[in-house]
Each structure stands twice: as C-alpha cells, then as structure tokens.
Amino acid sequence: ILLAHHDNSLSSDDADFITNERVLTLAEWFMEKCGNAKNIIPYSMGAEYPIYMDSFIEKEKNRRLEIFIIPGQTMIDLAKDNKLCNFVEN
Fold first, then answer.
1. HEC profile for the chain?
2. In this predicted model, what pLDDT tens digit does every residue of 45-81 receive, in sequence order?
3. How far apart, in whole angstroms, are the C-alpha atoms of residue 25 and residue 46?
4. pLDDT in tens, 1-22
C-alpha cells in the first residue's frame, strides 16, 4: 500500500491533486521495475492525517510517502521457517 501525504499549505483540492499525481507516478515506477506489481494499492491522502501541526518548519515533514508491506501467505510461511532471508537474497 502506498500512501502519499501533503501539508496544509495548499487548498484541499491542490493537495489532493499533488498527492494523487505523486502516488500514481510511484505506482507506475513500481510496475515498471517489478514486473508483477498488480497488488500495489495507491492512496492519495491530501493534507489528511498530519504528523506535525504547530511548526511551519516541521510541517514539511507532512509531505511524505508511506509504504506498507502486507505479507501474503508465502511470505508468512517462509518467515515461520526462517527462510525469508534466503528467499530474498536469491
């Protein structure tokens, strides 16, 4: 899951547009580089869910991309058998 965020320095529509473009561009990059990236789920969060609200300097940290990896059954099984590292290295 890819989540793109922005700060509240823009209008809601502009923040939504920028984060949408950002997350779709990154999703395309993953699809080009990974071949089978059909499970990538991009979300444009706009200015929702800020980390910092008070400091003008720190609100740039609200412009961020979060990547969540949700393991499938194969990854879970490899991890249980302590084989995940060997699988990733090959």
1. CEEECCCCCCCHHHHHHHHHHHHHHHHHHHHHHHCCCCCCCEEECCCCCCCCCCCCCHHHHHCCEEECCCCCHHHHHHHHCCCHHHHHHC
2. 988 887 877 666 677 888 899 999 888 888 888 888 8
3. 15
4. 999 998 888 888 998 999 999 9
Tokens of 74: 């194969």
Among the listed residues 42, 39, 43, 41, the one whose alpha carbon sits nearest the alpha carbon of residue 75 = 39
Q: Round to whole Å and give the CA distance between 1 and 30.
A: 12
pLDDT at 87 over 60: no
Give burial (CB, 10 Å; 0-12/13-18/19+) of 19. buried
Full-prediction pTM beyond 0.85? no
Give residue 61's Cα distance to chain centre.
15
How many CB atoms are located within 10 Å of the residue 61 CB? 13
